Amino acid sequence: xxxxxxxxxxxxxxxxNTILNTKKKTAxxxxxxxxxxxxxxxxxxxxxxxxxxxxxxxADATTGEDYRIQASAVDVNAPIAALSKLTSLDNTxxxxxxxxxxQPFKTKAGVPVLFVPTTALPIVDIxxxxxxxxARDGSISSTGFGIANMTATMLEQGSKxxxxxxxxxxxxxxxxxxxxxxxxxxxxxxxxxxxxxxxLLPAIDxxxxxxxxxxxxxxxxxxxxxRLLVGLQxxxxxxxxxxxxxFNKALYGSHPYAHPSVGTLETVPNITKQQLIDFKNRYLxxxxxxxxxxxxLTLTQAKKLAEDITAGLPTGQAAxxxxxxxxxxxxxxxxxxxxxxxxxxxxxxxxxxxxxxPQAQQKQTNFAVGNEVLAGGDFNARLMTEVRQNLGYTYGxxxxxxxxxxxxxxxxxxxxxxxxxxxxIDASLAVINDTLKNGITSTEMKLTTDNLKxxxxxxxxxxxxxNGLLGMMNFYQLPTSYLSNYVNRIEQVKLLEVxxxxxxxxxxxxxxxxxxxxxxPWDKKVAK
Length: 528
Description:
One of its GO terms (molecular function) is metal ion binding. By secondary structure, the protein is an alpha+beta fold. The chain is built from 19 helices and eleven strands. It folds into two domains: 209 residues, Cytochrome Bc1 Complex, Chain A, domain 1; 186 residues, 2-Layer Sandwich (Cytochrome Bc1 Complex, Chain A, domain 1). The chain has a six-stranded mixed β-sheet, with helices on both faces. A five-stranded mixed β-sheet has the order 7-11-8-10-9, sandwiched between helices.
């Protein structure tokens, strides 16, 4: 029997109410904040996926008013109820990580090589590193900061056989990635090429020209210095750069890590061609090199390529051990005036050097777990939760350790409104002190270790990822078991040891704090 007009309208009203209530319940689901720490690799995408699934399930299941609930009946602090019904999670097997099989060997010149064959793609990645970063600039000239950086820049700008344009044309014709860079600890020369002889062999030839026959053309050097000086002038308009420069200078004092790798406005004009030659002859030598290779090669082919790359290098001598910087014994505050509505804050202290023995590596793993809870980059880290979410002082705050050949920095950085800078700094220090006093929880530790283990394989999911790890391990002389023992170190983490390592490492009362902004947060009137 056909429905009457009143019946049709009544059904429409019921349907409309059902949809409205479904939307309300969906909105409530999206507001629920789980207590547990979400894995950064899933973060919001994973959570929104669950919300979408919950929305679909509710829409399908809603048939009348029997399903409706009041907003007051929802515990917004409880985990998502649907998670307990995902029985497939109960059958999930523990993650089994298969790390790349590393094949170590040495060239006739004594250069250590780490090689991993990968046959999935016809690509070869090569990473050659020298203990020749900007920390060595002072050994060439006391006023030559920027020598390592300029050397790395000009290795790519022509050889004795090919001028700059010819060299660049050869690289582009082969379709390879060939470049060099300088950092505080190291100078790197990297190559990515197709693995067939037609491409790889001429690519290796260009790489060896860079290393053994750079032209260091005077006109190109003058052009590079002019461009670099413009960049250094522009750097004065970047508050993050100003904060970083001031932080390193105050933290390291007279240590080689104190000056910027690219040099300064005062030192760059003094760089000469002879200094570049002296730097190359002293540090780009076999005794100071390490090599990593990954790709579609056999071990025999890898050994042949390694010999081709390193045979022309002078034997030379290894670079001397860098001195250890002295930690600050009391807090220090530095403010740099800058016309901006935001204040950039950088705070921290000396951290650790790169650990090579098992005991020190375990300690660094303990700290990494604790610091991820305290200052990790995800929204569940304690600093992010308090300073960003609860207080609304910043869009983001995070902190990390940068271990190097000598003790690297531990830095926490964020930006905030000028009038909130002091309050944000005080709030950050309060979170750090509370964490050191009361420690992280076992739940936080468990979720963090699970995240670190589950995300670990992503580090070697590509040729470039594998080769980057090999290059780092070889440069810092880490054992080949470093990767295979990584998961074991995470599984050996204990709550008491994590909290104790945090207390032993972080000294917030002695923090160096640099601010860049219009208002000095240390002004007594502003603080009041």
